[in-house]
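Let's practice the habit of predicting before peeking. Look at the sequence and jot down your guess about where helices and strands might fall. Then scroll down.
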Amino acid sequence: MNADEMKASIGKETVSDWIEVSQDMINKFADATGDHQFIHVDPERAKQTPFGTTIAHGFLTLSLLPLIAAKNADAPRLDGVKMGVNYGGNKVRFLAPVPSGSRVRGRSKITEFDEKRPGQFQYTTETTVEIEGSEKPAMIAEWITQIFV
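Done guessing? Here is the structure:
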């Protein structure tokens, strides 16, 4: 879609496919970040916590935003994008833990879309990460992306 169509899509909610958050994914994230706290990587000790199992790192949940976007076939996309970069976040809240083996999906909407200079656009997406079978979402994030055409 073109820039005017992107602007017109502000507020339109779309939903991604489900993504499994496996123990293997959690372990690899722990290795990548050095965060090996037992609630993430030790299923036996994690059984003794209020969670009853290992849980994903909050930052792992946040890092799923690009995958959530890729698995959201109905999300608005600007035509001719050569490159996109993370610009930062306005707000991130971790509301509920993501148990290992659970599935999550993103419910997203663009809240802002602006041309910063010719060929460079910036948009903000609000994404609520839902956990299958849970009323409470795992996370709500406002994320800013810049794209170049």
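How did you do? The beta strands are 14-15, 19-21, 83-94, 102-117, 120-131, 139-148.
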